[in-house]
Each structure stands twice: as C-alpha cells, then as structure tokens.
Amino acid sequence: MKKHITVEVIAQYAIASKDTSTIHLDVNAARKAGFNRPIAHGMYIMGLAQSLYLSEHPAQWITAYKMKFQKPLFVGTEAIFNFERVKNRVELAVTTGTGDKIAAGSFLVKELQR
To answer: Which residue among 38, 52, 77, 102 has the highest number of C-beta atoms inside a 10 angstrom radius?
Structure first.
C-alpha cells in the first residue's frame, strides 16, 4: 500500500500527539539536526502501518507490535507498506518509492470473535 506523507498530515499529527519537535515541522531545524528536510514521526509511521493493515483486514485485531527504523522518512515522500502474513504474525517492510528501506517490523494478529 502506498501513502504520500504530506506536510499537512505531519502537522496534524504533531498537534494530536503533542510532539511538535521542530525536526518534524521546520526545514531549518531539520537541517541543523543533519536531515535534508523534516522527517515523519516514527510513531506516526507505526500507527499508519497498523491502520492500513486493519483497513484491509477488518476481522483481525493487532495484539503485539514491534518496528525498527533504519532510515528517517522525509516529509513529502511516498511510503510503501508491504505486509506478509505468516499464520498469526504479519511481517512489515516500509520503503520509499525509490526503494530505500525505512523500517521493518512485525505484529501479531488474531481473528475477532463474532
């Protein structure tokens, strides 16, 4: 699944999460921290991955989750979320449109009782 990470969505997330660190919102602050431009919040990427997966699998519930970031995801970049389910575990890889590996992780899922 592809998702474009916009300035607007990161600004909304910063307000909602109360994480208004300038590396997420300001080009100059991001550059001072060693980044070419603002970076997305890691927790936003984790939450987005869960939301995208559950939107395609509404009869499942995530019971545990872990993710490791290899690189920052720059605001204004397209993120690609790849999910592979193996029994009750889902393996996740997040890459950019240019193939850079941003993060990898997994989560445990169970079927909701009806």
So the answer is: 38
User: pTM for this one?
Assistant: 0.90
Tokens of 30: 């991001």
Contacts of 87 (CB under 8 A, 6+ apart): none
* pLDDT, tens only, 11-41: 999 999 999 999 999 999 999 999 999 999 9
d(CA 38, CA 1): 23
Beta bridge partners of 101: 95
Instruction: Please give the Cα distance from 91 to 96 (Å, whole number).
Output: 17
CATH for 2-111 (3.40.50.1370, 3.40.50.2020, 3.40.50.300, 3.10.129.10): 3.10.129.10
